[in-house]
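The passage that follows is intended for readers who have already worked through the single-chain material. We present the inputs for a multi-component assembly, then the predicted structure in tokenized form, and finally a short commentary. You are encouraged to pause after the input and sketch how you expect the pieces to fit together before reading on.
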Amino acid sequence: MTTVTVVALVGAGSFALRFAPLVIGGRLLQSVRFEQLAGFAIVGALTALIVTAVSNQPSDTPASGPVAPVAAMAAGAVVARRGGALHTIVIVGVAAHWAVVAATTALGAL
Amino acid sequence: MHTTHLPDAPVFGVARARIRPLAGLHPEVRRGARSMAVLMAGYLPFGLTLGAAIGAHPEPVTAWLAAFAIYSGTAHLAVVQLTAEGAALPVVVVTALLIQSRLAVYALSLARHWRAESLRMRAVLAATLVEPSWMAATDRYGQPGSAADKRRHHLGAVVALTIGWLSMITAGMVVGPSVTAGTGLHLAAPLCLVAMLLPRLDGNPSRVALLAAVPVAIVAAPLPAGTGLLVAIAAATAAGAAASTAAARREVAR
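Having made your guess, compare it with the prediction:
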């Protein structure tokens, strides 16, 4: 197996996955129902990407575990629901992470 | 006695043009590039991580060039890691395409906006479709403006995305991911995804879809790469469809 072959196959497959819906999807999406279903599918895809990213995070302190990244996502979600800008969501989320890591470190030192 | 030379106005003009490289571009292109710049900052830690993996790959040049063909960090990282470990070709290809399957959903959601574009332009738009460019497109297409302006905005965003992403993974090959270690910045990419997701929960059925997707995604996370993604998509679609059907029935019953 060569890396070039893999890259060519994945590249071609990726392009097909992106391009085919643009050719056939215009007709399908004349249906409001289908557009609604595509919206639900996007919710599922983004949720899975977030969960995967959070579950793969290296923990900064042994005591914080998954609590710090989950707190970061929750804080970011609150800001996002209130219509916060992207940079605000990231800053608040990372700050929440720091706060939880600092708190768990302090508790662990007691 | 030393005198300082003060440049006259035309020289200042040249200097100002030089420090504003986007100055000659259409305002929509500039706006698209600026909107992407904020998102790109969030993806820096992930770009550095991918770059470090590429740097450690036995064929680093091919692994770097894959950024153009795959144009998605998650699938690119899977390909780089699996080929470095010597995994079988079908395993690598199927894993990467499962991860990429979400892109078909993004393309479907944009199909009606891009229906009037030429086949060649749709091919260009498709080749650069990934979460950040999808977000830029859905935001801009939801605002007033001509189709040409929206296209310019999107092209400005994807050019900035391509340049920024290639710069980040190249930097990652040199410095590795250690620059951001311990800073919490590794959470910036999933926080960007939260920013994409939350404003799109525009009704009860989509909230039901989210409530169904979260536990399913957690349970399915240990499954082989890409499989959990498909399971979560299926769960969210089924739950959202059921909720919207129930809502429609209640509306009819009234």
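Commentary: Chain B has twelve helices and no strands. Chain B touches chain A through 94 residues (CB under 8 Å). How closely did your sketch match?
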